[in-house]
Design goal:
With 656 residues, this protein is α/β, with parallel strands linked by helices. 39% of the residues lie in helices and 15% in strands. It folds into five domains: 219 residues, 3-Layer(aba) Sandwich (Rossmann fold), CATH 3.40.50.300; 155 residues, Rossmann fold (3-Layer(aba) Sandwich); 76 residues, no CATH class; 45 residues, no CATH class; 103 residues, RRM (RNA recognition motif) domain (Alpha-Beta Plaits, 2-Layer Sandwich).
Length: 656
């Protein structure tokens, strides 16, 4: 409700009783509004447009997604002179994405009247921006830093500006733009109309208004309760350790159609996106490290509905306009309550329902309580799913997949057969076998991990299962080839998947078909082992104590675990004759590192064959890996991206 200077709240019926035809707008603007598909103004438009049209300064407390861009864009298109040859209005926004979004909407609103905006932001050419403005733009939409650069250089003149809009002012101040905004405002004509839009009105916003605005009219649609009423706020209590695993468990139960996953740091965005991709989801990350072209590529995927999860920082997410976003997930809870309001405003837009899910660690409890108290947000606490709930989620997922695959009418012959199977005492076993064949590459394959790959079973078409079967055949052929080379396999001891006791047998020895092994290796343990039927028939002899005495092979990785560090040269020739370098990792068995998973991550990240990685030695709190010098940089970079229980590994060259 519009107030001056106090606030009150209008009822929904009062707000909906107005339409655009009653706002004294020109036929050109009304035509553009109709072309955009607008029928009735939103509450913020109903309240703000008359105030702006009257020429009064205004503070609008409006959440993202309520139609606030049109709330100031429509009056700008109406009040600016399309024949003017100078910049008449300046709109400041926090990020380039929002600058582009606002520019697109003002372009659509002002197209009939001939009002043109130009976007000005960092990372783009100064010359191009100056050219766009000088070609007849009446509105400049820009980020504070780049606008100030143009103002200082004199490349864009702002002496004709009589309307200033601060969009998402609280976000700009939280990003540290207060000095830039103050300098920009002081460089503008004093006789102007100033409009301030913000999701929240903290103390720094109030100080800014007192300094640069007269007696502004305050428009507030929800008082202190700024959260969208259609948004449901859920919290999951987590330990803070292994947060990516908790996120996958939550996604497995909630099953969102799409979501933005918010992180507090740039490093977290890449870690989370990688974990989601590993789990089989379509996911991309976006932060300030990403180039503009890559940002636009990712955003186009999300807007087109071709991306399930967008992992983003708060800065990168400004200006993201996705109308059908179902969920917002706080992977890490924001330190600022205003940031939470902006995050959750990305869902539940324009009256649609949405959900905000937050992973709450012990250190976040205080901020959560303060959020409830300050903004009157009612959060619903949920427990992380246990094994039974995860299994039920998988069963429902598989059932939905089956129902979708066989929704058409089945021939009567198979319907009768199904009835016979269901009535048979063997029916359950037959049905279980068919389901196993349907959901796994073959009935003998180990089932996929519950949480990590449940998504594959939601949308996987028949082609994916065919691919899985082909992959299984390739893997089987590789195993057969390995058996043909009589390569020993590591054997796990005492159920500990870190302790691998055997080393692969040297290729030069395996190639021989002699019943008696050369005395240089196995003869040390048994001088004259008599040939026996058992020895000849055993293609894969189990490793023994003698296997530890075999010379180090150069064509395949060796795994061992040691309780102490043994001094030796770090740079030795590998199987190909190429020098090797040893890498130290600051984690070991006691930190939850698993050799098998570590090797898989390295192979997946670098594309190197397993045989190129040399000897791996794991201790309680440290691990050493030998790699060829040509692969040293790639392996170091890959190790820096690997996370164990929520902590990134630190790798460095081993000391001599």
């Amino acid at each position: 409700m519009t107030t001056h200077p106090s606030e009150s709240i209008a009822s929904p019926s009062e707000l909906l009783s107005t339409n655009f035809n009653e706002m004294s707008l020109s036929s050109e603007v009304l035509q553009a509004i109709a072309q955009m598909g607008f029928e009735l103004p939103t509450p913020v438009q109903t309240e703000a447009i008359p105030v702006i049209m009257s020429g009064s300064d205004m503070i609008a407390m409006a959440q993202t997604g309520t139609g606030k861009t049109a709330a100031f864009g429509i009056p700008l298109a109406e009040k600016l002179d399309p024949k003017g040859n100078c910049v008449q209005a300046l709109v400041l926004v926090p990020t380039r994405e929002l600058a582009l979004q606002v520019t697109r909407e003002i372009t659509a609103i002002g197209v009939v009247r001939g009002i043109r905006p130009a976007a000005v932001y960092g990372g783009a050419s100064f010359t191009t921006q100056v050219s766009e403005v000088s070609s007849g733009a009446q509105v400049v939409v820009g980020t504070p830093g780049r606008v100030l650069d143009h103002m200082r250089r004199g490349t864009i003149k702002f002496s004709g500006v009589h309307k200033l809009v601060l969009d998402e002012a609280d976000e700009m101040l939280s990003m540290g733009f207060e000095k830039e905004i103050s300098e920009i405002i002081e460089g503008l004509p004093s006789k102007r109309q100033t409009l301030l839009f913000s999701a929240t009105i903290p103390s720094d916003i109030q100080r800014l208004a007192q300094r640069y605005m007269g007696e502004p009219t305050v428009v507030s649609l929800s008082g202190d309760d700024v959260a969208a009423k259609e948004i449901e706020h859920y919290v999951y209590l987590v330990s803070g350790q292994g947060r990516t695993k908790d996120l996958l468990r939550v996604i497995g139960v909630e099953r969102p159609d799409n979501a933005i996953v918010f992180c507090n740091t740039r490093e977290e965005t890449q870690t989370v996106a990688r974990a989601l991709k590993t789990a089989g989801f379509d996911a991309e990350w976006i932060n300030s490290d990403l180039s503009q072209s890559e940002r636009e590529r990712v955003m186009s995927l999300m807007r087109a509905g071709n991306l399930k999860f967008l992992v983003a920082t708060d800065v990168a997410a400004r200006g993201i306009d996705i109308s059908l976003l179902g969920h917002v997930i706080n992977y890490t809870f924001p330190e600022s309550l205003e940031v939470y309001i902006h995050r959750t405003g990305r869902t539940g837009r324009m009256g649609r329902r949405g959900a905000a899910i937050s992973l709450i660690a012990p250190q976040d409890i205080g901020n959560l309580y303060y959020l409830r108290l300050t903004y009157k947000i009612r959060t619903i606490e949920k427990q992380l799913p246990d094994e039974r709930q995860e299994q039920l989620a998988i069963e429902f997922t598989r059932f939905d997949a089956l129902r979708g695959s066989f929704s058409r009418r089945t021939p009567d012959d198979f319907t009768k057969l199904a009835r016979r199977v269901s009535q048979s005492i063997h029916g359950e076993a037959i049905l279980a076998g068919l389901l196993a064949e349907r959901f796994f590459a073959n009935a003998e394959q180990t089932p996929l991990p519950r949480t990590a790959h449940w998504v594959d079973e939601v949308t996987a078409p028949k082609e994916r299962f065919a691919q899985a079967r082909e992959a299984a055949k390739v893997e089987q052929s590789e195993d057969d080839a390995a058996r043909g080379r009589r390569r020993k396999r590591p054997v796990r001891v005492s159920g500990d998947d870190d302790v691998l006791t055997s080393a692969p047998k040297p290729r030069s020895l395996e190639a021989k078909a002699e019943p008696y092994p050369p005395p240089s290796v196995e003869a040390k343990a048994e001088p004259n082992p008599p040939p026996s039927v058992e020895a000849k028939a055993e293609p894969n002899p189990l490793p023994s104590v003698e296997a530890k005495a075999e010379p180090e092979t150069k064509d395949a990785p060796q795994f061992e675990e040691s309780s102490e560090f043994e001094g030796e040269d770090r740079e030795v020739a590998g199987g190909s004759g190429e020098p090797e370098r040893e890498i130290y990792i600051d984690a070991g068995r006691k930190d939850g590192v698993r050799i098998s998973q570590l090797m898989k991550d390295l192979v997946d990240s670098t594309g190197l064959p397993r045989s190129s990685v040399g000897r791996v030695r794991m201790m309680g709190r440290a691990t050493f890996i030998k790699v060829p010098l040509s692969a040293f940089d790639a392996v170091m970079a890959a190790l820096g991206r690997i996370e164990v229980d929520g902590r990134k590994l630190r790798a460095e060259p081993a000391k001599e």
